[in-house]
């Protein structure tokens, strides 16, 4: 009986050693304000808004309680993808460059986000991008 328990314990230990983990890319969060620093989601002037990828597919967005937008499920790839943000106030493009995560787990990390468009100022704040639409 002891040998059977020992064998089961060894088999269980060996099978759990190879467990994989996954590191998702950091979330991409935007806050939209006007030149007076008034939040454009809170006052309703940015709606309706949406994001499309380079293949014209809609990208899932989540609005937070503090009136920011989380752009869901981007950056989980190797390479660069282009996106376009649409709203009644302004359209602009951005590219997300990401690569495989070089750590103990599988996954991806966002290396760089590049914005292009007119009449926008972008500040990389702590954990989100503040986008001033003029």
Molecular structure report:
The chain has one domain (about 20-134). It has one helix and eleven strands; from the N terminus they run αβββββββββββ. It is mostly beta strands and about 130 residues long. About 10% of the residues lie in helices and about 45% in strands.
Task: Please give a handful of descriptors for the protein shown.
134 residues, mainly beta, six-stranded mixed β-sheet, 1 helix, 12% helix, 43% strand, disordered N terminus
Q: What fraction, in percent, of the residue positions are helical?
A: 10-25%
Stretches where pLDDT falls below 50 for ≥5 residues?
2-18
State the separation between the terminal residues, measured CA to CA.
76 Å
Strand content: 35-45%
User: What's the overall geometry?
Assistant: globular
Keywords: Signal
Protein name: Lipoprotein
Signal peptide: 1-18
The gist of it:
This is Lipoprotein. The chain has 134 residues and is mainly beta.
Helices and strands in order, then pairings?
Layout: H1 2-17, E1 22-23, E2 28-33, E3 50-53, E4 58-59, E5 61-63, E6 69-71, E7 79-86, E8 92-100, E9 106-116, E10 120-124, E11 129-133
Parallel strand pairs: 1-9, 2-11
Antiparallel strand pairs: 2-6, 3-4, 3-7, 5-6, 7-8, 8-9, 10-11
């Amino acid at each position: 009986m002891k040998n059977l328990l020992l064998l089961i314990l060894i088999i269980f230990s060996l099978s759990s050693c190879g467990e994989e983990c996954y590191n998702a890319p950091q979330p991409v969060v935007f806050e939209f304000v006007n030149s007076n620093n008034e939040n454009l989601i809170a006052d309703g002037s940015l709606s309706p808004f949406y994001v499309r990828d380079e293949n014209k597919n809609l990208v899932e967005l989540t609005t937070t309680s503090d009136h920011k937008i989380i752009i869901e499920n981007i950056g989980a790839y190797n390479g660069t993808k282009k996106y376009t943000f649409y709203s009644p106030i302004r359209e602009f493009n951005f590219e997300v460059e990401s690569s495989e995560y070089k750590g103990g787990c599988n996954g991806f990390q966002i290396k760089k986000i590049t914005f292009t468009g007119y009449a926008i100022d972008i500040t990389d704040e702590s954990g989100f991008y503040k986008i001033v639409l003029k």
